[in-house]
């Protein structure tokens, strides 16, 4: 019996965040069930029992323990399976910097990056035109965000310090989408950010999931 079942969707950056976490640990003992979002399977009674907002991803363990929200799932799996993506709990300073970096990604990056992904990728598959006003505002917000990150990364190799952690990994799926949508300049025009991204993109797990 597999350790758990991951319910996700093809093309879901949130699902890819979990797959990438597991790949970092070389963990393969799980089932991956893909829901068809185009058919509305995420709103089915079965999926609503796993995720009350009718979204993906979620994970379900044989004892019926269920967890949703990708960032919470990634952190839980990293702890449960000792995937080296978390600072030592005994290091209070490193843990505080880690939590700070997680908050930065969630509060300042994920929303504008997600809007670009939705407008430029999701809407394309839905046969709808992108709202370029929304896109332009999101690009401006990301430009301002990466201007700050450029300064921060001049003093540290990764987002939360000297080691690669979930604070870096959480960015990967949406940055991959930005790059594929023609917004690579947001990364490549800033030397410290570009160096950070090259290091992240070169990791075996990143190459495995996004090759």
From TrEMBL:
Alphabetized Pfam families for the sequence: GST_C, GST_N
Residues of the GST N-terminal domain: 2-85
Catalyzed chemical reaction(s): RX + glutathione = an S-substituted glutathione + a halide anion + H(+)
Residue stretches making up the GST C-terminal domain: 91-211
EC number: 2.5.1.18
Keyword Nucleotidyltransferase among UniProt keywords: no
GO molecular function: glutathione binding; glutathione transferase activity
Gene Ontology biological process terms in this record: glutathione metabolic process; response to toxic substance
Keywords: Transferase
Any one cellular-component term (Gene Ontology): cytoplasm
Broad class of enzyme this protein falls into: transferase
UniProt family annotation: Belongs to the GST superfamily. Phi family.
Protein name, UniProt field: glutathione transferase
Organism: Microdochium bolleyi
């Amino acid at each position: 019996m597999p350790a758990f079942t991951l319910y996700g969707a093809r093309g879901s950056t949130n699902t890819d965040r979990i797959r990438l976490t597991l790949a970092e640990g070389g963990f393969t003992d799980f089932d991956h069930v893909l829901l068809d979002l185009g058919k509305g399977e995420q709103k089915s009674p079965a999926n609503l029992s796993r995720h009350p907002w009718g979204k993906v991803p979620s994970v379900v363990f044989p004892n019926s323990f269920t967890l949703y929200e990708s960032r919470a799932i990634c952190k839980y799996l990293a702890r449960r399976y000792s995937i080296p993506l978390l600072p030592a709990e005994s290091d209070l300073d490193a843990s505080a910097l880690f939590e700070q970096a997680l908050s930065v990604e969630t509060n300042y990056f994920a929303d504008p990056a997600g809007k670009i992904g939705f407008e430029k990728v999701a809407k394309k598959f839905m046969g709808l035109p992108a709202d370029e006003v929304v896109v332009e505002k999101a690009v401006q917000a990301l430009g301002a965000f990466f201007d700050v990150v450029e300064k921060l990364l001049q003093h540290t190799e990764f987002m939360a310090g000297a080691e690669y952690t979930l604070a870096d990994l959480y960015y990967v799926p949406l940055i991959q989408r930005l790059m594929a949508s023609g917004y690579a300049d947001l990364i490549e025009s800033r030397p410290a950010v570009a160096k950070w991204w090259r290091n992240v993109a070169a990791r075996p797990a990143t190459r495995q999931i996004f090759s």
